[in-house]
């Protein structure tokens, strides 16, 4: 826990980071070319979204060979070169371990499918249906349809897929499956990576196959999401990681805060991503989260989980300025979010482009989205005869294309992601000409400059790496907290005061005492916060 200390983790979505061979698709050599940029913003750890052989129905979260690099990303030699070059830059690589399911193209599954007596049948969940094409139970998957698909050549036999149909769930109660997964971990750890981000780590244990309570999304989840039995399965991963002193960061879908805390306290995971912020409701019209709810959720996470994997963004979410900041206030709001992310207790996870204040597509037609979740929502809306605008709003609100637009390094054609006249696999964001590394590097007022200042503050103030957190009484739209040295230490303390809203708000002037290290406004009024104003103060230690 807290093993990363003051460091943050930078998430790279390889398809959209840097295309070195000019085929419109990002690749490993591209990442290697950009190590200089990563170093310049203080990155010490990179999490790569999946780079393994995949039909890319779910952009690599559907794996057909866990031990091969997908040729679109490069070769094994490219990967080893990246690990080595990263190491030379003091950057460690974390890979994405996606073992709740495989792709339906994985040889385990194709063998299981073609031969009923294959031992690989027991790698998955094959079950008899209820006759007449009726599945074994009423569970639904991410596309709102049955979580079971009937085999083409075996009537009344079904396989389980809790995500998409092309992602059959692995049967973790089969020791051979666990052994195979442990082998995959060793394979990559032996190549010098420092650990894994683990996909859907809370969904392995299926504790019964009865019908579930009917819900719009995820009927049956009470039988396979965050079951207490899951801990003993995760321990199988911990065993391997411990042999290498490797990091395990789990995506804790559906887990309560206390369950995430348990994974940490029992040393099963180093830390887990909570979905509390991700699942905050957004306003139906403007798509933003209420500032009060954001505040409440942050405080709950910070006080109930010993060490948080803090994040506002990843490859599944809309950009944070769109989710948390009212229109017209993005410049200040982006900095406020970055400031919070980099000063809360725990490890910050920064998703590529977040340091620039990247935003969602301006024009978004969900029917053209590449993402399978977006398409599933549109289909669902159509089937249920929802009004067109509602289907469209729902789909674009959840579209994962937004954060997957190519990274923008400069304002030349191709934005430094790819070359001129090359069609990227997903279209460029309309704002890339303005929101890009080059422009922002030249501008001391940019989000990137603010981010770099935050990294420096983290490095200069050990209390941000390891200190306790204490929330100060404040208005419901203001977040104010102290980072205090561990008991017995005399480091300086840090106070952060942020207005989470688009309103100008009065505050207790006492919150404005101390040495101002960083703010997103030039003019400071001790008793007042302008919209989305953030201030970071140092309070000298009691030597
Ligand atoms: O996401 C798991 C997850 O919880 C999703 O339901 C997520 O909330 C959804 O994409 C939002 O619409 C992980 C990966 O991060 C995601 O990219 C994969 O598609 C998914 O697992 C399946 O592997």
This entry's quaternary arrangement is single chain
The helical percent reads 25-40%
Small-molecule components bound:
1-O-alpha-D-glucopyranosyl-D-fructose
Shape: globular
Report the β-strand fraction as a percent range: 15-25%
Main beta sheet: strand number and arrangement?
Answer: 8 strands, parallel
* Annotation, overall tally of beta strands: 20
Low-confidence sequence ranges: none
Radius of gyration: 23 Å
Alpha carbon gap, first and last residue:
28 Å
- The mean pLDDT is 96
DSSP summary: helix tally: 15
User: Helix- and strand-based class?
Assistant: alpha/beta
| Spatial strand sequence of the major β-sheet | 11-10-9-5-2-1-13-12
What is the fold's blueprint, element by element?
Elements: E1 9-12, H1 28-33, H2 35-40, E2 45-48, E3 52-53, E4 65-69, H3 76-88, E5 92-97, H4 107-114, E6 126-128, E7 148-150, E8 157-160, H5 175-189, E9 195-198, H6 230-244, E10 247-251, H7 257-265, E11 271-273, H8 291-304, E12 309-311, H9 320-324, H10 330-343, E13 347-351, H11 372-383, H12 388-398, H13 437-441, H14 447-460, H15 462-466, E14 468-471, E15 478-484, E16 493-499, E17 505-506, E18 515-519, E19 528-529, E20 534-539
Parallel strand pairs: 1-2, 1-13, 2-5, 5-9, 9-10, 10-11, 12-13
Antiparallel strand pairs: 3-4, 6-8, 7-8, 14-15, 15-16, 16-20, 17-19, 18-20
Helix pairs in contact: 5-6, 10-14, 11-12
The site of 1-O-alpha-D-glucopyranosyl-D-fructose has 12 residues, from loops.
